[in-house]
Write a structure and sequence with these properties.
The structure holds two protein chains of two kinds. Chain A is α+β, with helices and mostly antiparallel strands. Chain A contains four helices and 15 strands. In chain A, the strands form five sheets. A five-stranded mixed β-sheet of chain A has the order 10-9-15-12-13, with helices on one face. A three-stranded mixed β-sheet of chain A has the order 1-2-3. A three-stranded antiparallel β-sheet of chain A has the order 6-5-8. The longest helix of chain A has 18 residues, at about 10-25. In chain B, the strands form two sheets. Chain B has a four-stranded antiparallel β-sheet with strand order 1-2-3-4. A two-stranded antiparallel sheet of chain B has the order 5-6. The chains are: A alpha+beta, B alpha+beta.
Chain lengths: ~190, ~110
């Protein structure tokens, strides 16, 4: 086909359709079970769909690639707390898949996927503490940090003490410094 | 004497080179740059946290200048050989960690 006059977008669509046609033509089976292939040491064939195991649950996925975010979604890890995804091989260490990275389901030796809480280090009252990254209400954060709910919780950001109201939320990414204190001061 | 771990905690919270000082048996922590709560003008100034009893107050936070519109009954005091300003804010116990004492005094400026 003569591409002259096509916009770049139309050209991209045409290339994607062509690539999909090649993929469809190469289909060997309707459903490829990657865990089964792995356990039997066989390569994963080109398939219409792939059976994958995520956190001990099986899912069918219609493409040969899947992103970290898509795996989190399959695992139901879509809440306010942050999880990480790992791909496991029959041999070797699990590998982290970042949210926007794609894992190939046809990669040799890939067996299953798991999700785990993303743990980060924060400081509470001058002591290090490891907690799950994500968004907490301040009440929840006090519970996780083992701070008495009656105490005031401040986050220190660039030298500024910011009081965190109990009905507020905090996004914990790691490295945060929290100070809790009694509410005892008063005008005299 | 101010424990090293308590000074380290304040330094880790980005207060610059905080230093311990003492006068008349009372311990202080000097902040070359203390960030005040939102709405205070100016937002940053030198400060001196008094960790013991001072003039009938259990602990005190002295500031380089008074903060208009925040706190009540501001008064001037000479501490460690220079004038400081503080407001009427009492009952913050001296047995707390300096970071806790500071946080509770700053609450009085919100």
């Amino acid at each position: 086909m003569n591409n002259e006059g096509l916009t770049p977008e139309m050209g991209a669509v045409e290339r994607a359709v062509a690539a999909e046609s090649v993929e469809l033509a190469a289909i060997e089976v309707d459903l490829a079970d990657i865990e089964h292939c792995c356990l039997h040491g066989r390569p994963v064939p080109v398939a219409r769909a792939y059976r994958i195991k995520v956190d001990n649950e099986y899912h069918e996925w219609p493409k040969a690639h899947i992103t970290g975010n898509q795996l989190l979604h399959l695992a139901g890890r879509t809440g306010p707390l942050v999880f990480e995804v790992f791909e496991h091989f029959r041999h070797g260490e699990p590998e982290l898949i970042s949210p926007h990275a794609e894992a190939s389901l046809r990669k040799h030796g890939i067996e299953r996927f798991t999700t785990e809480p993303k743990l980060v280090d924060v400081t509470i009252d001058n002591k290090p503490k490891t907690i799950q990254a994500g968004t907490y209400t301040v009440t929840q954060l006090k519970e996780v940090l083992k701070v008495d709910p009656n105490r005031v919780l401040d986050e220190v950001i660039s030298g500024e003490f910011k009081e965190l109201p109990d009905n507020g939320t905090v996004h914990v990414k790691g490295g945060e410094i929290f100070v809790s204190h009694v509410r005892q001061g008063q005008s005299s | 004497m101010v424990a090293q771990e308590h000074l380290d905690e304040l330094r880790a919270a980005s207060f610059g080179d905080v230093t311990a000082k003492a006068e008349g048996g009372v311990h202080f922590v000097f902040f070359p740059r203390l960030v005040l709560p939102q709405g205070c003008t100016p937002r940053e100034m030198q400060a001196l946290l008094c960790l013991g009893r001072h003039g009938g107050y259990t602990t005190r936070l002295f500031l380089q200048r008074a903060v208009p519109g925040r706190g009540a009954n501001w008064s001037s005091h000479v501490v460690l050989g220079r004038p400081w300003w503080t407001w009427s804010w009492n009952q913050v116990p001296a047995h707390l960690r300096p970071a806790e004492i500071l946080a509770e005094h700053l609450r009085g400026l919100r």
